[in-house]
Amino acid sequence: MHTASAAHARYTTPAGFFATARSAFNLGPQGFKFADWELRLRSRSLISDAGHEVGLTKTEFALLLALLKCPRQIMSREQIMDMTQAEDEVFDRAIDVQMLRLRRKVEPSNRAPTLLKTKRGAGYFLDADVQVLA
Length: 134
Hints:
Layout: H1 2-11, H2 14-25, E1 31-34, E2 37-40, E3 45-48, E4 53-54, H3 58-69, H4 77-84, H5 93-106, E5 116-119, E6 123-126, E7 130-133
Antiparallel strand pairs: 1-2, 1-7, 2-3, 3-4, 5-6
Helix pairs in contact: 3-5
């Protein structure tokens, strides 16, 4: 009974209720900051340092998120497909196309990528420090 009355007292004020609700929804990161970019998970948006939003497709978002979760770690196409939950019917070269499209949006120059790099014969990796936003 004491536990129930303590829980009731905690929720009687609006501030207590909203603080508890907020903590229940904040189970994971809010986003990631890397180089001059911020990826916001809730809104699924990519924001430049200047505050401009860059539109990402569902696949581009999933690809960038996979790379952000494993910075500076080379990931094969198969690993990326597993992490992005790409369908088995998707040909692994489709990852190459998605990476090219993502580079066009994130990199200052397509000819010499500085963030989204390829390790020939091995896979792709994000070459940047990543900060998790809580």
